[in-house]
Amino acid sequence: MEYKEFYRRHLPHWQPRGAMMFITYRLAGSIPQEKLKAIRNEYERKLKLAVTDGGDTHKQKIQAGKWFIVEIDKILDVAQHGPTWLNNLEIEKIIVENMHYHADKLFRLWSYIIMSNHVHVLLQPMLVGQATLPVALQATKTNLENNAVYAPISRITHALKSYTANVANKILQRSGTFWQDESYDHWVREEKEFWRIVEYIEMNAVKAKLCDEPKTWRWSSAYERHHFGIDYLEPLPGIQK
Q1: How far is CA 13 from each of CA 52, 94, 105, 191, rounded to the nearest angstrom?
Q2: Residue 168 and which of 63, 68, 99, 136 are 20 to 30 A apart at CA?
């Protein structure tokens, strides 16, 4: 039986065991509440329609999830609402360093981009020992094949957001919420989708008319590979602090 971590807050979150994940996290207040509510309502409508119209329910739910992420991205890319603190060079540097610090520990880092108010990242959770999990969770996973446990998305997003929020607030000399509490995630189902998501991430700045080529956007995996002369796609390395 395939293991999937599931949790729901405003949106459902699924993590099939070891699946590649596309995650978007954004600054608090970067989307007007009325627009966010309208998108969520339409998303829920699409989910209900998928169940009642007699079509391919699974496929329609996947399409609804993709639609949701694209609609959110449209608002974030124009950056007409809320803070744009990620334009700060010190903060961008901290975010990239933090990704690399956790790479090869919690996840394989495949692709990323930092925009003015949000971050896209494509990663693959890594196996972690059961000893690193709370006892209550260990007990529910003892029958998994080889007792293998992958780093949960909730743990990964906390690692990406908690430290960077604290440091960014110090840089900005402010207090309060930095990142929006909930992130958006989508698990990658096939190789073609993997390549589409890599292109989607690395073309984000081009699509937003901030640069002409992906490799010229300083805070991105495309720039990083170009800078180091890597002309193929492989996981970006972790670093030690």
Answers
A1: 22, 27, 22, 21
A2: 68
Look up residue 134 and give its amino acid: P
- Residue 185 near residue 5 (C-beta atoms within 8 A): no
Pick the CATH number of 13-30+79-227 from 3.30.70.1290, 3.40.50.2000, 3.40.190.10, 3.40.50.300: 3.30.70.1290
Distance CA 136, CA 77 (A): 40
- The answer to whether 44 and 65 have CB atoms below 8 angstroms apart is no
Which parts of the chain register pLDDT below 50?
1-12, 141-145, 241
pLDDT of residue 17: 67
Pick the closest to residue 179 from 35, 30, 73, 22 (CA basis): 30
CA atoms within 13 A on the CB side of 138: 8
Cα 226 from chain centre: 22
Domain ranges of the chain: 13-30+79-227
pLDDT at 19: 83
What integer pLDDT is reported at residue 234 of this predicted model?
81
Residue 184: strand pairing partners: 24
